[in-house]
Amino acid sequence: MHTSRTRIAAAMRLERPDRVPVMCQPALGFVLRQLPELDPIDVWHNHGGALARGFCEISRRFGFDGVLIPAVGAAPLDGRTVQRIDRKNPEGPVVYFRNGDSCLYCRNDLPRYTHAMPPEREIGDLDPAAIAEQLSYHPPSTRLRMQLAEGAAGRVAELTQARALLGPDVSLHGSLYSPEDYLIDLLGADGAMIALLTEPEKCRALLSKFARAVAGHAREQIAAGADALNVSAPWVGQSFISPHLYRDLIAPAQAVLVAVARAGGVPSYCHTCGAIGDRLEAIIDTGFDGIECLDPPPLGNVELADAVQRIGHRAFIKGNIDPVHVLLQGTPAQIRADVIRRLEIGMTARGFILGTACAIAPDTPAAHVALLRELAERYGRY
Length: 382
Fold this sequence. Notes:
Layout: H1 4-12, H2 28-34, H3 40-44, H4 50-62, E1 66-68, E2 82-86, E3 94-97, E4 102-104, E5 112-114, E6 137-141, E7 144-147, H5 157-166, E8 171-177, H6 179-198, H7 200-223, E9 228-232, H8 243-263, E10 268-272, H9 280-285, E11 290-293, H10 304-311, E12 316-321, H11 323-328, H12 332-346, E13 352-356, H13 366-379
Helix pairs in contact: 4-5, 6-7, 6-8, 7-8, 12-13
């Protein structure tokens, strides 16, 4: 008899569990909407374990077989840098920093950070030798950095906290940001795109150094007991780079993380959004054991049946319910029909995990999300 943890492990090993595992990634805004008692500042900085507690509670509430901690190692808010906090803003508390920056900690979205001075730099200003060996931040979104704790225990605190909350029978996944995310964070999207085309060798050297730093955090998460590692790589789709640039520059840096996961005995999988229909094989050729989101039209261009035929014998597939047009906006009957169809197709792959293509949108009705486990129990039995 499978537990949630062994069920997901079997799917990731391309073995057949008792039923299709269910594992969706809730957006931070969904967590905060479902758990309004949580303070957005506390969650973002994991004060008192709030980030781990929020994501674990969502998983428990909706019967997911696994929990992905989306950003591991958050540093507490440094009060020495804070000028004041406005808690009257209807969107969420706003922190004003002494250096002129500010951050709106949204109640239904990622924080929105405003810089007093533009943070982007030029490729000529970057020196690969100056890239630190240890990560100091994650880049979850454009111009948004999650600072990391300085101590080793703090850099994996969410994982140890989550395991204590979940017990031994739920799959727990750590997360990494792909090396190119750090390049884009420093140069901006336009600057990074130009640099990849005009300064490929320097970008290769920078990506290699970023990969070494991210690999160090990967090893820390594996040592802390992560059952798998999710590599967030939202910029590898067709809207940003060509398949050639992906294979030539991005994939070698990502392969460093794959190798670390493999050496640590845990699977790794690539999270990327949007249109990736022309590079499914390239992503798996990098060495990843699996892939998510596989956004279907109109969010992306991946049809599940096509993905199963092309890579379903080589890697596990996690997805690919449309989180907007189906789970958020659909009727219960439409959701049931869509999920049942995805189960039918997904179960023909060697390894399949049912989930949303990308994150559960903040305003998604809880009753819609609850349908997923119910339908997997009924129609996802092998």
